[in-house]
Amino acid sequence: MTSRILLLIFLWATFSSETMAAIRVVATTPDIAWLVKRIGGNEVDVKALARASDDYHFLDARPDFILAVNRADIVCRVGADLEIGWLPKILEKAANRKVMAGGAGDCDLSRSISVQDKPKGPVDRSMGDVHAAGNPHFWLSPLEMGSSALEVEAKLASVAPGKAAEFAVNRAKVQEELKTLHAKIKERLKPLAGKTVVEYHKDFSYFCKDYGLKSMGSIEEIPGVSPSAARLGTVAMEARKSGVSLALATDHHPKNILEKFKELSGVKVAKVPSSLADPSASDAYEKWQNELADEVLKAFK
Amino acid sequence: MKPSVFILIASFFLNFEKEAFALAEGTGLKFSAATDIVGNIDSKDEAKYPRRLDLREAEFGVYGPIDHGFDGNLFFAAHNENGSYNVEVHEAYLSTSKLIDNVRLKGGKFFLGVGRLNQFHRHDWPFISSPKAHETYFAAEAASDTGIQANVLLPFIPIYTDIGLGITNGWTYGHSHVQGTRPIHPTHYARIGNFFPLGESGGLQTGLNYLGRHSRVDGEMRIFGFDAIAKWRDGKTVTWLLQSELYGRNLRAPGAAMERTYGGYIYAQRNLVGALDFGLRFDGYTLITTGTRNLDYSFVPIFVYRHSEFAQFKTSYQVDFEKRAHKDSQVSRAFQVQAVFLLGDHPTHDF
What we know:
The complex is a heterodimer.
Chain A: H1 2-15, H2 17-20, E1 23-27, H3 30-40, E2 44-48, H4 63-70, E3 74-77, H5 87-94, E4 106-108, H6 142-159, H7 164-188, E5 196-199, H8 205-210, E6 214-218, H9 229-241, E7 246-250, H10 255-265, E8 268-272, H11 284-300
Parallel strand pairs in A: 1-2, 1-3, 3-4, 5-6, 5-7, 7-8
Chain B: H1 3-15, H2 17-24, E1 30-43, E2 53-65, E3 71-81, E4 84-96, E5 103-111, H3 132-137, E6 144-153, E7 161-168, E8 185-198, E9 202-215, E10 219-234, E11 237-252, E12 258-273, E13 276-287, E14 294-308, E15 311-324, E16 327-344
């Protein structure tokens, strides 16, 4: 009886879908998972750690994340210190040499993009949640998403050199699609070019840059810290004076503060998802970007 | 170590931060400091909860890669123990997860890898005071010793299963400033940790623990126990936190009869609004082998305000009771306040 159970466990471990997949990739966010799937195709089995509704700055080093990273061939992260509070702990506890810093599976997408908002002077905690490496929210830009595809392709190719040509073709295809998507949305948002928005947190800087919107800055005075009543009053007045037409916020930003801002400034507020919802759908990124554009257009009507 | 030496080292790194970071450039060396200030504002038992505001502990740590295989960790702490600050090496160990896949190793002086609270520095606990069972079975903060520990994350199994085994000198136990004596059996322990996701935003981590030691002076001790923590998160806020540890201990002092005790705590914390949480802890501790019904228990309601990830303030009202042969009596109480702040390297968000 014992030998039969052991045989079953062995067969299950050997032939389970997890072990049959060619390349096991863990992505920290759904957007990266989508990109990896588009480039890796059927050669990859991708798992996203965070959900679209999560605040990627504030996740825990959950043991199920540790388990996923332990089994991974590649771990792809946004980088620019976005995951600094939780990913290093996960990597340490996962004890998987392949995905540690310098390993073949160490994939940091911020390496292949032009990071915005890099602080010019010294950074310290009195400035709040300022990322010394720059603004990490680049996945809201189709163009930067396209650039980051290079890192994904390189890592997949280093793990499966025999499939490198396939990954290069897929990468070129997804980059082309992202360029086309960018052009389409830019056309849709053309009437709004030069209009000014205000962001709750600096999540939308790349989005604004891509589509010609001006950002007045953020409602938060200190990044990552809820604005005080005095700050809300000041920024509301400033927004009104500057002719700001829209405040952009993500689903996890505080509803009550945004409502107060709307009341004080008279500026419309659009709460939008900060990430795509279903990384397994090939058109998920396009749908999500169009959803963002719809919300912006709706607010300006 | 003399306090002056500690202050000298800490000043070097903290006051001359730029120079220290310049020295560390290219080495991956990181610094952190933590300060834990605790006060008893209103107290029924002056001996247990003296009415004063004190620096309970200041900790200073340096850590980083030693080479391509090992990391080094060195933490100094100054504790307030009965009015005098004892500066000591809190932890000093080398560790690696880079040598063997699925395996983490550490060697040196460290907090023993058993239970929940014992693996965390006190300023990272969700409450101010130490539950009686934790203090009795481990130490006011943590049982630490010098030895080796190995953790294996079991491959192939679809559930997170981490097995930790450790063996340490065992000359002393808990938190000690003496050399101790050579034990008959050194301190040895094991923990099996598991994790189960709860819905989309929550999870439950459990641990089964065993610790044993046989000393000529202190006798033979075996501790068995269970720890669990469940958390639910919404964005940056932990909406619910449930944490518990339950232990049983058999202790046979030299020439004495076996003493069997049970103890533990249950803590529940709910986010009220924004950065403000409310928690309630119940502690219990009972000696089974006396033949008389007895229970020491405490209720500890607590408010936690997180100004940021790096600074938090707590207030709690601890009420301690004794039950002796069906009679309950309040033995001590205290209104406590705590301020904790962290400097330096970004703290990790452990589950």
